[in-house]
Amino acid sequence: LPNKLSVQLGAAQQLLARGVEPLVASRHVQVDARSGRTSGVIPKSPYTGDRTVAEYLFRNRRPGGGRSSVYTSTLLLRREIAIEHGWDETLRRHQDWDWVIRLTTAAGVRLVQVPDALVRVHTGSAASVSAGSNWEDSLAWADRVLLGQAPGVYEDFLAAQTLRYALSA
Question: What does pTM read for this prediction?
Fold first, then answer.
């Protein structure tokens, strides 16, 4: 949306002034590709920094909409940080979650999510990787990345992903 960069740059500059490397997200609205309907603001509760990003994304995760999320199209960060900590191109699923978790566990990178909805995310595309139900790739990723996280993160991720795949079948 038109004010995305100005809002996020303001948040980034506040962190940089304190010597913190910023990763600034926003909330978003979803636009259904088939109907054109627009959701309310997502996520219902923005990330506040009171827990790890993995805990925010996956603890008590529901399979439906409105859940905790950090969409890559909402992110603002320094180019050098993005290049230094690039995406894992070997992953077939969960590249975005993997990237954000790695960025926020790297020294000095802190995620903040501004409360504004600054992006429209179009959903429902048949070509979407997220729309698929490849549970094997999800399990492999969770085994590699989430087993070492806070208690319950791995288990809640598996439960929510399994329910999501079951609901989409």
Answer: 0.87
